[in-house]
Design brief:
The chain is of the alpha+beta class. It has 13 helices and 36 strands. A hairpin with a 3-residue loop joins strand 30 and strand 31. The relative contact order is 0.14.
Length: about 675
């Protein structure tokens, strides 16, 4: 199921590596452009997945690999900006700090926190443990260094590629609507917005996709990048395979294309959930969103990804508006825990209000229709209950000033004032604007609801076009960028205290604070004035705690070697294209021994001639699923099952399936191994 607004406004980048000019022509270059892509899959075993906060959702294989995709646009003799999109739940403040440190060592001051943006697509099927604040790494048993390093390494490498690929080129922009790729999961909160404001819009979600097309002077069209507001959670909270979900799938489909050329229901009754509280008979655990492929979450992921892909292809082919003009950027840090916000009053004049230290409400614990909570929490709870207040007070009892500031949110976790053993939630957040000609990108460190995103976008556009500065400006929001601070609702949506309002950390005036501070950045942009850097966020890397058990050793049963088949294909078997699935199981080892970065755990090969095997499909392909398992949590033995759903487009021939892995001995040495199935025919 796809959800509301700009909480799901995560771009996908298709790195399209064409080796010759393609149809669409080449125009005069305005900029230097560069693209890059690198594997960030990380540990595919034993690590809790980031997003649903479900301690039982532990990675155990690969649906398809995750990537960091970057675009770089530069003036030939002037400014440049880099935008990195991650097949990850969100960006991490600590990850960005370390990436910038590495870039500084390599390039000096060419790339800084000001002109580099790092964003996430919000898949909930990637390894967690890479954020630095406690509340976001509880279910991953603390900090996971492998997850963190995979991101830092991959982002750095993707930017290096983009830098090395810089060449004269042009950027085009196009827009269009997708009507069947998302729904609003909190319509009752949306309806609390003023009727006059709602009447300005046809839908309760943003249906518009904005696409950039990159055209190299020498090679022609080389890539695309787009923003579309839908939640990247077609894969459920019980899925255990690493996946980029529908956003990652759409990017993969786009790359493959270039190379070749809902609602929520009660699980017990089947009836729609309660409208205001998303419960079934008072229980939130029974209310679950259904994707278009229900009950198959993989099919829902494919469908929503394909709908975005097909629209992106249409916009790509028709893109004709060329971006021209200056490249500019502004960046600052803001302490959102105690920010004064000046708001207009209805009768005229203004009033000054304040944001609050971070806190999460009771409605947060209820979860939402694509990621349920537990116990007796429910959305839309403005009261809380006495039992959970007692539990809360064991951790931290909020003071009266905090209670009043966050009202009407009943505080469940006073995370902004919880400092042991170190900070539970962020206080200092980055905000950032990129301008590439008539395109403006607002990098926001959280998930904006539809109406909140509209208000911010419109306010910035009004500021940028004031005083005759030109009206042809495209403004997009890049959510989950540079760090993560949960949700941002409108003031009216906050009053309802559904999941999104309960997850709006800094109180009812959070959106007002964003609008105020982004307008300052926009004003500085058009007046060519610098902005103060603001307070520096903490670097908590040295304080991180990890409770994840390391790999001790791997073993196989007597008489069996790593890579041997425990279940092979039948001898002399034939499978049909577009119909059959081939399944092979190997004796394997823990996937954390070698992440196979820029490689693969699984491979389908086709026989050419008498003895030449050629790769056909691997971990990156949607049709191949790699599933890893242990017989028990403490077992040293493990197995890997590879499932190949044979596409209709597969070339008939003789095939085999291979597995690549690495085992660890008791003394710590790592040994790589391979295994192969018997050959079989695809007809």
């Amino acid at each position: 199921m796809e959800v509301l607004g700009y909480g799901g406004l995560w771009p996908k980048l298709a790195i399209l590596l064409a080796l010759c000019a393609v149809q669409g022509g080449v125009c005069d270059s305005s900029y230097l452009i560069g693209l890059g892509s690198y594997d960030i899959t990380g540990p595919a075993a034993d690590v809790n997945m980031m997003g649903y906060a479900n301690a039982e959702q532990i990675a155990s294989g690969v649906h398809f690999r995750l990537r960091a995709r970057s675009f770089l646009v530069a003036e030939p003799q002037g400014n440049r900006v880099v935008f990195v999109n991650l097949d990850a739940c969100m960006a991490s403040q600590l990850v960005k700090l370390k990436v910038i440190e590495r870039l500084k060592e390599r390039y000096g001051d060419l790339y800084t926190e000001k002109n580099v943006a790092i964003s996430g697509i919000h898949t909930h099927a990637g390894p967690g443990g890479y954020l630095q604040y406690i509340v976001y790494i509880v279910t991953s048993l603390g900090f996971v260094r492998q997850s963190f390093d995979a991101l830092v390494d991959g982002i750095e490498q993707s930017i290096i590629q983009a830098h090395q690929n810089l060449a004269p080129g042009s950027v085009f922009v196009n827009k269009g609507e997708i009507l069947d790729a998302g729904v609003n999961r909190s319509p009752s909160a949306y309806l609390n917005n003023p009727a006059a404001e709602r009447s300005q819009y046809k839908y309760d979600v943003d249906k518009e996709m904005t696409l950039l097309k990159f055209v190299d002077v020498q090679w022609g069209s080389v890539g695309s990048f787009n923003w579309f507001a839908t939640h990247g959670t077609s894969m459920s909270r019980t899925n255990s395979l690493i996946s980029g979900d529908n956003k990652g799938a759409a990017a993969r489909f786009m790359e493959d294309w270039f190379e070749e050329n809902g609602g929520a229901f009660c699980t017990d009754t089947g009836l729609p959930c309660d409208f205001n509280h998303s419960t079934c008979g008072g229980k939130n655990e029974l209310c679950y969103g259904r994707g278009p492929g229900y009950p198959d979450e993989f099919e829902s992921t494919r469908i929503i990804g394909e709908r975005q892909f097909r629209k992106a292809v249409d916009l790509f082919n028709k893109a004709s508006e060329q971006l021209t003009g200056k490249i500019e950027y502004r960046h600052t840090y803001i302490d959102f825990s105690q920010l004064e916000v000046t708001l207009p009053k209805k009768g005229g004049g203004s009033e000054v209000v304040k944001t609050c230290p971070a806190a999460m409400g009771f409605g947060f614990a209820a979860g939402t229709t694509d990621g349920l909570g537990a116990f007796d929490f429910k959305q839309g709870d403005n009261e809380g209950n006495p039992f959970w207040r007692l539990v809360r007070n064991v951790l931290k009892t909020p003071g009266q000033e905090q209670v009043d500031c966050q009202s009407p949110k009943p505080i469940l976790l006073d995370t902004g004032e919880m400092k042991q053993p170190y900070d539970w939630a962020p206080a200092i957040l980055p905000i950032q604007i990129f301008r590439i000609g008539q395109l403006v990108i607002l990098s926001v460190p959280g998930e904006f609801t539809t109406m909140a995103g509209r208000q911010l976008r419109d306010a910035v556009k009004a500021e940028l076009t004031s005083g005759g500065h030109g009206g042809n400006i495209h403004v997009v929001l890049a959510g989950l960028t540079n760090t993560y601070s949960q949700y941002i609702t409108t003031f009216e949506e906050y009053e309802v205290q559904r999941y999104e309002g309960a997850s709006t950390l800094y109180g009812p005036h959070t959106l007002g604070a964003y609008i105020q501070e982004f307008k300052k950045l926009a004003k500085a942009l058009i007046s060519n004035q610098p902005v103060a850097p603001g307070p520096q966020p903490p670097d908590l890397l040295d304080r991180q705690i990890s409770l994840l058990t390391p790999v001790v050793m791997d073993a196989t049963p007597p008489g069996v070697s790593f890579g041997d088949c425990s279940s092979d294909v039948p001898q002399n078997s034939t499978f049909k294209r577009g119909h059959d699935m081939v399944t092979v199981t190997f004796w394997s080892a823990c996937l954390r021994n070698d992440l196979m970065t820029e490689g693969t755990f699984s491979l389908v090969e086709i026989l050419h001639g008498k003895d030449t095997w050629v790769p056909a499909y691997d971990d990156d392909d949607f049709c191949l699923r790699f599933k890893w398992s242990r017989p028990s949590k403490l077992s040293t033995s493990s197995q890997a099952t590879i499932e190949w759903r044979i596409p209709q487009s597969t070339t008939p021939g003789i095939y085999r399936i291979r597995h690549f892995g690495a085992s660890k001995s008791l003394v710590g040495s790592i040994r790589h191994f391979t295994g192969s199935s018997s050959a079989f025919v695809v007809a």
